[in-house]
Write a structure and sequence with these properties.
Elements: E1 23-27, H1 35-42, E2 46-48, E3 61-63, E4 69-70
Parallel strand pairs: 1-2
Antiparallel strand pairs: 1-3, 3-4
Bound molecules: zinc ion (ZN).
Length: about 80
């Protein structure tokens, strides 16, 4: 009675640029160290955001259609 469970419990938003649902979460910090992540990487569900530095306006999402990156943490919490 169990259906497939998603590997990552993240819901990707639509791309604000092209409206595609093919949006990958960008992972920061760790290079892919788990098989699940690697599978996600291969299926374009996840992309790596680079090394260990999380800079302030690092985007969270990357559209795999148009390569638009968005979702920088400039939303509700600390608006200045
Ligand atoms: Zn897009």
């Amino acid at each position: 009675m169990s259906t497939e469970s998603p590997v990552l419990d993240i819901k990707a938003p639509l791309c604000p640029n092209c409206g595609s649902v093919d949006v990958a979460a960008i992972l920061y910090g760790h290079p892919a160290c788990s098989e699940e992540i690697n599978l996600d990487l291969e299926s374009n569900q996840t992309v790596l955001g680079g090394c260990c530095e999380i800079y302030e306006k690092a985007p969270e999402w990357c559209c795999t259609k148009c390569n638009h990156q968005f979702g920088a943490c400039a939303s509700s919490e600390d608006g200045y």
